[in-house]
Amino acid sequence: MTTMKRVLVLAGDGIGPEVVREALRVIDWIDRRRHVPFDVQQGEVGGAAIDAHGTPLADATMALAQEADAVLLGAVGGPKWDALPFAQRPERGLLRLRKELQLYANLRPATVFAPLVDASTLKPEIVRGLDLMIVRELTGGIYFGEPRGIELLPDGQRRGINTQVYTTSEIHRVGRVAFDLARKRGSKVCSADKANVMESGRLWREEIQKLRDESYSDVELEHMYADAVAMELLRRPNRFDVIVTDNLFGDILSDEAAMMTGSLGMLPSASLGDQRADGGRKALYEPVHGSAPDIAGKDLANPIATILSLSMMLRWSFDMHTEADLIEQAVEGVLASGTRTGDIMAPGMARVSTTVMGDSILHELDKLSA
Ligand SMILES: NC(=O)c1ccc[n+]([C@@H]2O[C@H](COP(=O)([O-])OP(=O)(O)OC[C@H]3O[C@@H](n4cnc5c(N)ncnc54)[C@H](O)[C@@H]3O)[C@@H](O)[C@H]2O)c1
Ligand SMILES: CC(C)[C@H](C(=O)O)[C@@H](O)C(=O)O
Ligand SMILES: [Mg+2]
After folding, report:
1. In b/e form, how buried is each residue of 238-255, taking b as 16+ CB within 10 angstroms?
2. Rounded to whole angstroms, how far apart are CA atoms 95 and 198?
3. What stretches in the chain show pLDDT beneath 70?
4. CB-based contacts of 11: which residues, under 8 Å, 6+ apart?
């Protein structure tokens, strides 16, 4: 018997609802055409939740996320809520979900689809065939460290404080995810830190090395400073297989990696917690991009990052590899046919809206499974 897949959908703000709408159509397609029943609930996060409930994530929505098999999120934030105090900003809703669901391993694959080789601002020979995975630590580091805040000094100046902090177990658990992934890929891990200037970076390096020596001696490990990784990503991105890094460096390096693929609108992500004894795990899937206020509400956004995030959900939460492969093939097929949203546009191609990109992917799915 096929069990019901319980998915909580939090579309969020800006282009969030537009890109999520297209992913929902793909869920509906799988439900109808592949006979896999989905139970989709919807809720608010970010600015939408502030407007509806006065908080970026209501406790009731948090409880729904705890109960769901997986969460699909669009994006949060926007100018309307930018002036709010820090603890009430839309982004806090997303950070609360990550922290309370203990989604410490954030997988951000950067893959260059062959038809998009020319969409990158880098030369085709640099990005062709790129297939790298950034594993970003997501529940620790400077994003959550204490003390934090803005304080007034006696001389009238203000001082902003954030604290970078990691423990051995936090480093080991995300390290394990990276090494396990590397074993299924090119067996190479690059760990990015600032061990030359930060104690937490030194600990990171020592503990990743210890983990590798004790449990993953078959995997090649190199350590690099995060700034050098930023440079190497532009110079020779294909040298990387899996990059494991902390919360802040991972945030920055994944936006950089996204641009290899042509656009932020192409990069999906999975945020995973520990695997339970029954094989399941808490998980949230979201595009790497934000709410893109500059193009919101205009049917211009690229929905592919969100649709590929759904494909990651099928793989990581539901073991539905055939359907995940189908979605990726459909995306590749649509790109090969020259259908493009504005962000991945190239001369001679057809510029389409968010909705038409969704239509095209559904049409391709129909063709592939005919
Ligand atoms: N996970 C998230 O929800 C998330 C991630 C990043 C930023 N944000 C928030 O989003 C807001 C805007 O941030 P930003 O402008 O720095 O980043 P952004 O990712 O929203 O936009 C950066 C640029 O990329 C373009 N872009 C992004 N996604 C696109 C898509 N799917 N299709 C086509 N073009 C796309 C935008 O038009 C913009 O020019 C802020 O409030 C920020 O905090 C949220
Ligand atoms: C919106 C923001 C909190 C978030 C982050 O910094 O983690 C975003 O940039 C991301 O990459 O998911
Ligand atoms: Mg980011």
Report:
1. eebbbbbbbbbbbbebbe
2. 24
3. 1-2
4. 17, 20, 21, 42, 48, 73, 74
Does 213 contact ligand 1 (Cβ within 6 A)? no
From the CA of 302, give the closest atom in ligand 1.
32
The complex's ipTM? Answer: 0.97
Neighbours of ion ligand 3 (CB under 5 A): 251
Closest listed residue to residue 302, CA positions, set 254, 268, 330:
268
For residues 175 and 191, what is the distance between their CA atoms, to the nearest angstrom? 9
Entry pTM:
0.96
pLDDT reported for residue 95: 97
Alpha-carbon radius of gyration of the chain: 20
Cα(124) to centroid(ligand 3), Å: 25
- Tens of pLDDT, residues 55-81: 999 999 999 999 999 999 999 999 999
Among residues 3, 45, 39, 53, the alpha carbon closest in space to that of 291 is found at 45
Asked if residue 279 lies in contact with residue 164, where contact means CB atoms within 8 angstroms, the answer is: no
Q: What are the chain's domains?
A: 1-104+267-370 (3.40.718.10), 131-260 (3.40.718.10)
CA distances from 166 to 38, 141, 351 (A): 38, 6, 46
